[in-house]
Write a structure and sequence with these properties.
Length: 128
């Protein structure tokens, strides 16, 4: 499990280094997750890679362990909010408005994506 957790963290580190080094406008952990995805896809395609931390269910079990205790990762964020309560009080209405607008926008985009995908799939079934 330690090797699998190390692999996850190394992917995150690689993503962070590349994003900061190249000045890319995206979070480093997102790029790290893409690296991890590519590694897992390569592992499934090439049996020679299925060793060590990439062995079957190695990374998967480590990630399940992380997800089990995911709530602990929100403690630092909660402490940071409590430390900045004066800013929350000052800009709370604006933050709430932005959150509400972003939730509505996300829901509308999700519905539109579902409708487009549904239409494309129904066309594929009706095609000769």
């Amino acid at each position: 499990m330690i090797a699998s957790l190390s692999l996850i963290l190394l992917c995150q580190l690689a993503g962070e280094v590349i994003v900061r080094g190249l000045g890319l406008p995206m979070p480093g952990p997102v790029l790290g997750l893409l690296f991890l995805l590519l590694l897992l896809l390569a592992r499934d395609r090439f049996a020679a890679l299925a060793r060590g931390p990439l062995q079957p269910d190695g990374v998967e079990n480590a990630s399940r362990g992380l997800l089990t205790h995911l709530s602990l990762l929100f403690v630092p964020a909660g402490v940071g909010v409590v430390q900045k309560l004066d800013l929350v009080a000052e800009h709370g209405i604006a933050v709430a408005a932005v959150l509400a607008i972003s939730v509505v926008a996300t829901l509308l985009v999700t519905v539109a994506t579902f409708l487009v995908a549904s239409r494309l799939m129904s066309r594929g079934r009706n095609a000769p």
